[in-house]
Design a protein that fits this description.
- Helix 1 crosses helix 3 and helix 2 packs across helix 3.
- The chain has one domain: Arc Repressor Mutant, subunit A (Orthogonal Bundle).
- It is built from four helices and no strands.
- By secondary structure, it is an all-alpha fold.
- This is Anti-sigma factor family protein.
Length: about 70
């Protein structure tokens, strides 16, 4: 299903495969949830900037992680 979900979202399925996939989604809430989350992830990744954050941003994030409260083991 995961491979088909990618092909479904990329519109790379044949008419019959798409029909079978949609039928499965109507019956399976777990796959519906998976495809919904995958579609949201793809949308967010397409909206993300292509360039990496600048060095100052990386340093600030690293400092935040270093100073964050860590659970005690």
């Amino acid at each position: 299903m995961t491979e088909m979900a990618n092909a479904y979202l990329d519109r790379d399925l044949s008419w019959s495969a798409k029909a079978q996939f949609r039928l499965h989604l109507m019956m399976c809430k777990h796959c519906r949830r998976y495809v919904d989350q995958l579609a949201k992830t793809v949308t967010l990744l397409r909206q993300a900037p292509a360039e990496a954050p600048d060095r100052g941003t990386e340093d600030k994030l690293a400092e935040l992680f270093r100073n964050a409260d860590r659970p005690r083991l």
